[in-house]
Structures are given as structure tokens and as C-alpha cells.
Design a protein that fits this description.
- It contains 17 helices and seven strands.
């Protein structure tokens, strides 16, 4: 059936639109505000084009641009005027649009051209399925789990910067890892409250021991031995010029406060996620070590499992699928993970799989088997393969709505 193709280049303020006729020729192009008023005008122009050409089908496409296109998608999906026609709405991967655009060697770079390329991409039909409009509960959960993802990523990056700072101030202390937890409350207090390696190295041993007992809340079995190890490491550490040491102390204080703030933020998010999960019955939490947070991260991104025909489709959506290198009778066994896919779903699947490795014998055996098969990138490869195995389990449990039963 002939259809109207609508390409939309979305930005924070305006949406640039290109209306393309079924034969690929231009009907019109214009710009509207990225607001309810502008979206209503967009629908008016689409309906006008459909009626003037006696068309009953329309395909609307826009690039995935973070939050800027979300409101527009919901508006178009729920609009009563547009619902009278057979319409489909697609959110295209920017990489797909760029590669499609590369086929045109004479196009300029501007918003109208981009909207034309999106419309033409729709006309050729090599696009993803119609955009999935998930349950509001999943959307609420997704907001929390994605924020947690970014908080964890920020915390990981800040901890790495912190380790670099600690090496500058206490080189041997960082090397010897006196504390079992570098980011524990006692360790952070020590790094923050003592201004130099010399201060630690030559202070009274009993005072340092008392400090460890107080900050560690009497959890250390032998605080005096730890105090001696700290002083020994402090004595063998590099010394910094006073001006450099002062600046390191300032940066260290800021870093410690940021780490604490991020950890507190993650705790708040975990609590909110657990509360949201009480509203969504699921079977994933029957898996050992997969608590409400990991289950929430997976469910929030998958939504309705029935939109995936099989576990392979879900694997591709999660980015846990491998590229193929084949020519004639040759097919390479050394392939890489695809670069596309839902990074949030991939993260939570990998974290849950790694957690399962620690407490499930079957997954532990599988992980270590894959780990020992190669000499490079062992952990990364083994984790990806274990997460792919775990994905098959997730698909089956959600599809059949049944509980997990361990084989071990």
C-alpha cells in the first residue's frame, strides 16, 4: 500500500520535518516547536498531506536522541486524529541513519537534509519494528535503574581517580593495600584526616591504633598490627613538596566527599527500585543472588517479553550477539560482540550473571570453562558468554512465567 513517509530531525527546541510522497518526491518540509503546540501543528500537516493524496498509511521516523524525542513519540502515538490512519512510529539508530546517508555523496549537512534522509530510510524499509510503548510501571522503573547505572559508572570513575591521588600522597600504602577495602570508612577517614606521609609515619603508634579502633568501630581483630603496617608503608612512600601535597589534600577531600555522596545516592535509588518492584510481579528474583535491583534493571529494559519472538532477538537487542565473518567455505571463529544494543540491559545482565557465578555451581563451571579457553581478555569474554547463557534463562522464565530451579 502507498504510504506517506515523515522524517523528523529532533532537537531540544525545534523539530524539522520532511514529508515524502510514496514515490520519493517531496511533499513539504517545515519546522515546528518541540512542544505540544508544535506537535499538534505537525499532526495537522501530516493529516492534510494524507487526505490530499488519498492515503491511509503513514510511517513516521525520528532518530534516537536521548530525552528530546520521547514526548513527541508519546504525542504521536496517542493523538486521536492520527489514530484514524494506519500509522507506524519508528525510532531509528543514529548509526543506521548515518550509514544510509553515506550512500548519498552530494548531500550537505543541515536539519532539512537529515529529516529527508530519515524519511527516505523509512521508504526503503530497512528499519526496526514500530517503537515499543511500554507499561508506565516499566517506564518509572527504567528511570530509576538508568539513573543508578549512571551513578555506578560515575562512582567507578571517581574511585579510579581517587586511587591515582592516593598513590601520589601515599605511594607504598597504595601498593601494599593495607586495608582489605580501600574505600571502607576507616581507610577513607585515614586518607582524608592525615595531611602527609610524614604525619602518619612518625605519629605515636598508640594514637594511630586508637584512631583505627574508633573509626573501624572495633571491627579490626588486630588494630595495632594494621597501625604498624600503615606506618611502615608511610615511611617508604615518596615525599611530595609542600605546595603539591596541599593541593593533593584538597583534591583528595573533594574526591572522598564525592564518593560518599554517590554511594548514598545509589542506596537511595536501590530503596526506590525495591519499592517499585513490589508493584511488578516477576520470576527473576527466584534466581539466587538476583535481587530486586538487577531484576528491575532487566525487566525495565525488556518490558513485555512477548515482543521478542525468541531468545536470539532478545540477545541482539541486549547487544549480546556476535558479528559473523564468513566468505566461501571459511568462517572465522574469532568474532566480536556487536556494537549496537541496549547498553543498560547489557549492563544489568552482565552484573546479574557475575553475581550468579559466585553462588551457582553450573554458572561458575561455565564461566571458568570459558575463561580458560583463551589467553587474552579472559574475563571479558567469559562474562559476555555467561551473560548470554543467563539471557536464555531470563527469556524462558519470563516467557513461561515460572520460577527458577537450580540444577546444582
Amino acid at each position: 500500500m502507498p504510504k506517506l513517509y515523515v522524517g523528523i530531525d529532533v532537537s531540544s527546541k525545534n523539530n524539522v520535518v520532511y514529508l515524502m510522497k510514496p514515490d520519493g518526491s517531496k511533499y513539504s518540509n517545515f519546522s515546528v516547536e518541540n512542544s505540544p503546540k508544535g506537535s499538534a501543528e505537525l499532526v495537522k500537516q501530516i493529516v492534510k498531506a494524507l487526505t490530499s493524496h488519498n492515503l491511509t498509511e503513514v510511517a513516521v521516523g525520528l532518530e534516537s536522541t536521548g530525552c528530546y524525542g520521547d514526548h513527541l513519540v508519546y504525542f504521536l502515538k496517542e493523538n486521536a486524529e492520527l489514530a484514524k490512519f494506519n500509522r507506524s512510529i519508528h525510532v531509528l539508530n543514529p548509526k543506521q541513519v548515518k550509514k544510509f546517508k553515506d550512500a548519498y555523496n552530494d548531500l550537505q549537512k543541515n536539519d532539512y537534509i537529515d529529516s529527508f534522509v530519515i524519511a527516505d530510510c523509512l521508504r526503503f524499509g530497512r528499519i526496526n519494528k514500530e517503537v515499543y510503548m511500554d507499561d508506565a510501571r516499566f517506564k518509572a522503573l527504567q528511570t530509576l535503574t538508568r539513573q543508578r547505572f549512571f551513578a555506578v559508572r560515575s562512582l567507578t570513575a571517581e574511585k579510579q581517580r581517587f586511587l591515582n591521588i592516593i598513590f601520589k600522597k601515599y605511594s607504598s600504602l597504595a601498593q601494599n593495600k593495607v586495608f582489605s577495602d580501600t574505600f571502607g570508612a576507616t581507610a577513607l577517614a585515614l586518607y582524608e584526616e592525615f595531611d602527609s606521609a610524614d604525619t602518619l609515619a612518625y605519629m605515636d603508634l598508640h594514637e594511630l591504633t586508637d584512631f583505627l579502633v574508633k573509626k573501624g568501630k572495633n571491627h579490626f581483630t588486630d588494630p595495632e598490627a594494621i597501625a604498624k603496617a600503615i606506618q611502615k608503608a608511610a615511611r617508604s612512600s615518596y615525599r611530595l613538596p609542600k605546595t603539591v601535597n596541599d593541593s593533593v589534600n584538597q583534591v583528595l577531600s573533594v574526591s572522598v566527599n564525592l564518593i560518599r555522596a554517590l554511594e548514598q545516592q545509589i542506596k537511595v535509588l536501590d530503596k526506590a527500585i525495591a519499592e517499585q518492584m513490589e508493584l511488578i510481579p516477576n520470576t527473576l528474583q527466584s534466581i539466587p543472588s538476583v535481587g530486586p535491583v538487577y531484576a528491575a534493571g532487566i525487566i525495565a529494559e525488556i518490558g513485555d517479553i512477548n515482543r521478542f519472538n525468541n531468545q536470539s532477538a532478545l540477545g541482539k537487542y541486549a547487544g549480546l550477539a556476535w558479528t559473523q565473518k564468513q566468505s566461501g567455505d571459511f568462517e572465522s571463529k574469532n568474532t566480536k560482540l556487536i556494537r549496537s544494543g541496549n547498553k543498560f540491559l547489557k549492563y544489568y545482565l552482565c552484573e546479574a550473571a557475575l553475581s550468579l557465578v559466585r553462588c551457582d555451581k553450573e554458572y561458575s563451571r561455565f564461566y571458568h570453562l570459558k575463561y580458560n579457553e583463551v589467553n587474552k581478555g579472559q574475563h571479558k569474554r567469559a562474562l559476555a558468554l555467561t551473560a548470554r547463557k543467563f539471557l536464555r534463562l531470563v527469556f524462558r522464565l519470563l516467557k513461561d512465567n515460572r520460577l527458577y530451579i537450580s540444577k546444582s
